[in-house]
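Why do we care about 3D structure at all? Because function follows from shape, and shape follows, mostly, from sequence. That is the central idea of this module. The next example makes it concrete: a single protein chain, its amino acid sequence, and then its structure expressed as tokens.
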Amino acid sequence: MGTVFSFDVRGGDPAAVEAALAKAVAGLHRADAVFSTYRDDSQISRLARGELTVDDCDPEVAAVLALGAEAEEASEGWFSLRYEGRLDPTGIVKGWAVERAARSLAEAGATGVSLNGGGDVQLLGTPGPQRPWRVGVADPLRPGGLAAVVSAAGTTELAVATSGTAERGAHIVDPRTGRSAVTDLVAVTVVTPSVTWADCWATAAFAMGSREGLRWLESLPDVEALLITAGDEVRCTGGLASRLG
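And the structure:
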């Protein structure tokens, strides 16, 4: 997927967890092979060219496209499954793949899982007794610094995902114009139980801009967010403070 994935897995039977970890890594490679828009032979590329139907593809393709359609509806079109008029589920696949892999490890008996896929993090369980997972949010305007630290204290499922320009430049597209989003934001970090949705909501809110993005994020259930503008203004949802520490 053009990025680095890192696993921190705690507890469980070592042999079972090791086997699950190998299967999770294989699943991530498989997701890349199926969904990559950079590979002409991937199922998603062939589907976009009309060489396959959805029914011809792996069942995961239909599942991801259904999630993407749900995201499009919830964001009033600010999240899109298309790029330059072509089918492109890139905006949802990474989060979905990260979450699926993390949950497979928990199902195998791991008592704590932290899976980071290119900055999209799924947390499950705990790293130890009385110890919550904590995730640092990079400051997009101060390389090497942190804008916040998110804590999973009090919950066994939490995800953190960030969309912005610090790492990859202006790569987020405004679905209405097909061009790079014109926005006052440099980063949006979303905190919610599922990294599939955290990734989608961060992308959509970034394209909206700080004012509309914050209003929309506030309307979503069980979602908190941190928005940073190019002018170094920090805006956040009302309940974010309860997740910092």
